Amino acid sequence: MPDYRPKYPKINPEVEINPNHPNLTIWHNKIDCCMFIGVHCHQANLSLKIIRGGTSCYTIAMCAQAGHEDAMLSFRDASVEKIMRLADTVKRLKGTVQPRLTSAKNGASS
Length: 110
Prior knowledge:
Elements: H1 13-16, H2 22-29, E1 33-37, H3 41-54, E2 58-62, E3 73-75, H4 80-93
């Protein structure tokens, strides 16, 4: 029977297929904090569950509706004033706050 497998090199799914795997993106890029702005609630909730379950990344969600229970910080009724106030606070605290888990390179969260 002939071999119908492709002859080209195999792709690495962790590098090539990240949109559906936010935890892989976070692991490879060493992201400490991620922010969800304008993401549909169902997609945001699914991504937040994956991120919370597999990484130590700090998650912030800005929602125009009820907020997201799986985010570590969730803004309800996000407005320009709230976003600017958050940006000012982040600038003020940048470099002074240590990550929650500094040894979580393998994605284990506690």
